[in-house]
Amino acid sequence: MVGLILALGFGGTAAAWSLMAELSGAVVASGTVVVETNLKRVQHPTGGVVGALFVQEGDHVEAGQLVLRLDETATKANLAIIVNELTALRTRLARLTAERDGTQDMSIPPDIAHRARLEPEIQTLVDGERLLFTSRARTQAGLREQLTERTQQLREEIKGVEAQQRSLEAQLRVAHSEMQDVQDLYAKNLVPRTRVSQLEREIIRIEGSIGEFIARIAQSRGRISETELQIIQLDKDRATEVAKEVREVETRISELAERRTAAEDQLRRVDVRAPGAGFVHQLVVHTVGGVISPGETVMQIVPETDALMIEARISPSDIDQLYIGQETRVRFSAFSQRTTPEFKGTIFRISADLSRDEKTGLSFYTAGIRVPEVGLHGASDLKLMPGMPAEVFATTSERTVAQVLLKPLFDHMNRSLRED
Fold first, then answer.
1. 239-262: per-residue pLDDT in tens?
2. Which one-letter DSSP state was computed for residue 378?
């Protein structure tokens, strides 16, 4: 009986204590120290081979400081090839322009003329184009001269035929006059009929020869016209050919100019500089000769003036207990727990949607916790760095022991009633 009374008394006391005693609640989450305004990534758009490395992990750098230089051998060689081809094409264009405009000499661009005085290979290039200009001009002039001489010969031939024609026409006039006299004598029976027939045949012969001369003159004049058209066509074909070459060269020059701009930009980018002042973090390359992929993050710069914060992962089942402005306690597991106190923090940001860890497949919300400046930098010798792990305890409302113990039972009963 006494035992029963004691048991009832103990049970009553425990029940009363569970109903009255309050426990402080907290949501526990793991987090990481990050820069509030995010790290500044150092990347290269095209990548390449490391030629020189000027920083190491943890080094302090200033904004614009040279941190890395890519090997520029291939870039310089590519640029030199483009520049040389451009020089050759521009010199060729100067020659074609002179041919198109019919000038007596080529007008070499000043920069190429200057290089020609300093570089023998450029002078050789210019001399070659000048020689080609002279040779082509002579060839064209020779063809024109041949055709011109042909027309001159035809004109001289016409003059000779015309002289012969005039002579025959004079003979024809004499023959007609003589025919008149002979016909008068024949009418008087003073000359035989054979004499009249002889003169008639002579007149017919002379008239036929005159007709041949007229035809030869017309033929020669036709050949002159054809030759003159050949001269015109020769010049036209030449102009068409040169104009086509000019268009092709100008198109190629335009393409190479764009490639030169890209190559010069790439050469300027061999020097990789820090985007801002801070500390080198997560350096990827460590030796000369290492390869950087296009767009790869070579290193990160932790801004020295940016505040640090805690980025915590919150379980979806606990998100309803968190709110903006909620106080937290933060503990950094990298430091000794015996000498490192907990720091007070405040939740200032909660993600609107779930994120997913690609490695584990777990979903979580992200909470940003800002720790006061004193908490981070006033703790004697402690030095926080991005990436350090942290434990976050977000204080929730106080509950009695009975509420804590009976909550699972009530939740199960609610689910059972909904299912029924």
1. 889 899 999 999 999 999 999 998
2. -
pTM: 0.56
By residue count, the chain amounts to 420
User: How many whole angstroms separate alpha carbon 281 and alpha carbon 299?
Assistant: 6
CATH superfamily of 21-36+307-420: Efflux pump adaptor protein, beta barrel domain (2.40.30.170)
Identify each DSSP E strand in 250-320 by its residue range: 271-273, 278-281, 291-292, 297-303, 308-314
DSSP secondary structure string, 159-176? HHHHHHHHHHHHHHHHHH
CATH class of 38-71+271-302: mainly beta
Per the listing, tokens 């950087």 go with 292
Largest CA distance in the chain: 201
Percentage helix, strand, coil for the chain under 3-state DSSP, each rounded to 5: 55, 20, 25
Q: Which token pair is 48? A: 């390449």
Whether the CB-CB separation of 302 and 58 falls below 8 Å is answered with: no
pLDDT in tens, 21-64: 454 567 888 888 887 666 788 888 888 888 889 999 888 899 88
- Can you give the residue ranges of every domain in the chain? 21-36+307-420, 38-71+271-302, 76-268
